């Protein structure tokens, strides 16, 4: 029966069978029986035919179930196997002699002797016989499979499992024979190559060795394609994969290297290349949204190849999507783009993902410092790109507001603040620029409401305003000095734009208070008990500690906030007074009366004795005297002002002077000047040419005060100066229209003098346009430096040591300024003084 089956199928795959037949019965006989024993000859021939029979019965099968369910074939294999195993036993236990020549005898004849062959050699020879026949079957299966697939890697990968199952069936049919020696002669397993591999793993190795010999350099591409075959399966489930037998799993079991790499290393390399090239795994919103699903799928695939690879494969996946600066930067950018125009707010992306996932991934690997470094670098790059070479502060704060608003868990807010202050020079300058940015946005919103949302109710307008205000959620908002910057800005704008027809007075000032309430309300916990406050603070301590301070500091912040509201009310009262006076007297003179304690310190002047009064033009002097008369009369009638003294601050007075120059819209250009600039310019209405000495005599101003004023006019080319040091009006004056706003041109004093103090209080003897002083900015810088210095020393610093530390960092301040800054920090409880050690601590 065996002979018949073999001959019937002999023509199916001629090449391998013909190659197998080259090992004829006589040659096999010669190999295993030099004595030409017919018994062994027959056994060898039967084994040979059984290998051919197994090949012919398995190579043409397309579905392994066809073989497994063919009871007749199964029965045939079972019936033949005992006889084959008996042949194996007989052939490995036979006695065989080999001849060798001793030399020549006296008759010149060779003498032959026979020596019994050691059984070890007989067993190895038998195993070599079985191994050669098995390799022929392996080669036949591989060649048939590659030919049917037309050497297409895609088709090979698709049908690989079916092929391998058929191959394993063939090896299983031969299993008792090819494993006979390794099982029954364990002492020689190492020589046979089965020390670390089972017999079937050994022939799996030979299978890939054979495929490699056919494909040569293309073998690596085939294995890569087989990996991609599973990676691109979608959807993918355990049920789909449970019957799959991927190449890499077999290679891993039999230790077959791919491109000089272990199967695991090759898989990790392939997976890494795929992750870097696959667009679906780029840092995108959908990728992060489906992160857990993708991670699960990644683990499922790794377990398909080898369960022990799951951890490393997931690490690689997490490295690609989480543990790098690019992904962190991209995720922050994604969050910036989740702004909902309809709802006018950012979508909280942490409902399905969060930057905290990045943080947790780094923290789990003890790489939290690297995470902070990556966040810091990403924020730095974004802010520097926004600031640009042209130092665009508006674009910078647009970026800062976006970054801060999407950082719901306050993961990188410290980096935002640090780099913002670094770009702008200091914390004080950053706050100052933010105030300008906030006001600019507020002005635009109010203008937009007037044009597009005029039909809104007041509540609707306030809601629109609050929803769109650029709220800055950074730590320095909690500084008790933070409202001071707004106080100075509001005060400055009030005195500069104190005209009932100006947009500031009519539109901006009425909504300023409500706008700033929105700005401050998030950092002030009000109307709650101490217990509730502590509970609320502790609940969010891990993420939002910067918004909640100890009770004492919270109390100081509330006091400061109340002080700000009181300041604003004083502004409102002053503007109201100015409007009423202007309406009742039909005069262009718009007076503003403030409580001295409500005027920011940077604008206040000491009350020195009146010295060398400067000379006001007659019309202005009349208006001033008329106002004084009205005010003193009002003091008697109004009890609220009866106890107040009026102290004019000439350095803060501003005037609008109409010129003869006509701008493109047909109106006359108006100059915005200080009072002292106005007094000088009006003199040229009477005289075309004036010397410095004449101007000084007619205004009673000192030369040191006049020179900056005249320089300001020269800078704007309103005046010109001849060789005789005589000043005259420039008949060819043409303003820079870019600087003209609403028909007005503000003539700014030179920068190095614009902040000087007049030091004369009520006196008219100084022309310095004092809108603030260098003292204020020095104080802000000193406070920041003192706090930073003390914070870096855990044990605190003595006064002398602190002074020297600050002096090394900042130049140009006095001991008095240092003491003032130190006193303010102690008062605001940013630092404390340990009386026992006489040291300052944070």
Automatic annotation (TrEMBL):
Concerning SMART domains, the annotation shows: Cullin_Nedd8 (SM00884)
Instruction: Using the record's annotation, list all stretches that form the Cullin family profile domain.
Output: 429-714
What domain of life? Eukaryota
Family designation: Belongs to the cullin family.
The protein depicted here goes by the name: Cullin family profile domain-containing protein
Q: Which gene encodes it?
A: SMKI10G1630
